[in-house]
Amino acid sequence: MKKIKSDILRKELKKINKPLYLFFLFLVLGLILIILGIYEVKQNEDKYIYLNNVIENQNNEENVYAYLTITNPPYSFAKYEDEDNQAFYIVFDSRYFYIAYISNTLYEDLQNVSEENPITIYGLTASVPDEVKEIAIEVYNEGLDEENQITIDDFNNYFGEVYLNNTSLKKLNSSFYVISIIPFTISLVFFCLFITKKIKTTKTLNTLNAEELEKLDSEITSEKTKYYPKSHLILTDNFLISLNHGLIILKYSDLIWIYEHHFKQYGITTSKHIYIMDTKGKRFNIMTCDILNKQTKETIKEIIAIITTKNNQILIGQNKQNEAEINKILKNS
User: Fold this and answer.
1) 102: DSSP letter
2) What is the CATH number of domain 222-332?
3) Average of pLDDT values for 46-67?
4) What span, in angstroms and rounded, lies between the C-alpha atoms of 205 and 199?
C-alpha cells in the first residue's frame, strides 16, 4: 500500500483493521470452545465402562455409560409392538453374549462386523425386563439338547441383568462443538469484511500517482478541510474522501448527483444515508447515520452544502425530475 503522510487519513485507514481484530477475537473464542469441548469429551470418555465390567464388577448397575465391541452380526429376538425402528438383539464380543436395544440403522451398520473388523457401540445400561429374559432364553435354547439349555436362573451368567440401551456408534459428545460454530461463523464474516475493505482501499490508493497522493495529503492537512470522524468522511478543497465502506476518493468535478436515503422500519426512520453518483453512473454510500437527532441532521445539511458548493452542477435530492435528468446525463455520456 502506498505511504500516507496525513495523520487523519492514516488514523482512518487503521480503522479498516477493526474487523481483523474482531476476526481474531471470535476466532480465539471459537478455539476456546473447541478446547472446552475436547476437555468435556475426555471427561465423557472416562464415564464409559465396558458392559461386562458393569455386569461383573458393578452389580449390574443401571444408567451407567457403557460400551461394547461387537465382533458378530446381531441377532434380533424381540421388539415392542409400538416400536418399528428398534428391537432387542443378542450381541457377541468374541467372549460373551449380551442384550442390546438397537435401532434398525445401527443394525445395518453392524452387518459386516467380524473379529478382524469389530465395531464399538455406546449407550446406557438398563435392567432387562422379565419378558425379554424369557424370550432370550427361549431363542438361546432352540436346537440345544436339554442338558445344554438354560433357565431363568442362569440368565445373568449368560447375558447379565442389564442391557445396553439408547445405543449408537458415537460416545457422548460435547455441546461446545456445536456452540463453537457461532463464533467461527462470525469470525469468518469479519475476515471477509476486512479483506473486502482492504482490497478496495488498496485498489483506490493505486489509482493515484505520487503527485496526486502528495496533493491529497497536502489538502487533508489544510485548515479548509472538514473532517467528520464519526462519519469517517473528509472533505478537502478538491477531494471527497469517505471510509464508510472502505476507502473512496472522489473529485468534486466528477460528481453529478447527491441525495439522502432514509431506511425505515415500521414507518419510522431508523437511519439516514448519503449517496453520491459520479459521471460513470457509479453510486457510493459516503455516510451512514444510525442516530438521528438535531445535530446529525445539521451535519448532513452541512456536508451536502459543502459538496454542492464545490460543484454547482451536482443535482441535489432524490426525486423523479432528478432521476430523469440523471438518465439523460448517463445516456449522453
Assistant:
1) E
2) 2.30.29.30
3) 90
4) 10
Q: Which sign does the torsion angle of CA 209, 211, 213, 216 carry?
A: negative
Report the distance separating Cα 248 and Cα 250, nearest Å. Answer: 6
Distance CA 209, CA 18 (A): 27
Indicate the angle between helix axes 181-206 and 18-47, nearest 10 degrees: 160
Q: How many residues does the chain have?
A: 333
Residue pLDDT, tens place only, 217-262: 888 888 888 998 888 899 998 899 998 877 888 999 999 999 888 7
Alpha-helical runs (H) found in 98-142: 104-109, 130-141
Neighbours of 186 (CB within 10 A): 17
Average of per-residue pLDDT across 102-128: 92
pTM (predicted TM-score): 0.60
Indicate the pairing of strand 162-168 with strand 119-127: antiparallel
Q: 169 versus 305: which is more confidently predicted? A: 305
Report the topology of domain 49-170. Answer: OB fold (Dihydrolipoamide Acetyltransferase, E2P) (2.40.50)
Residues pairing with 92 in the sheet:
97
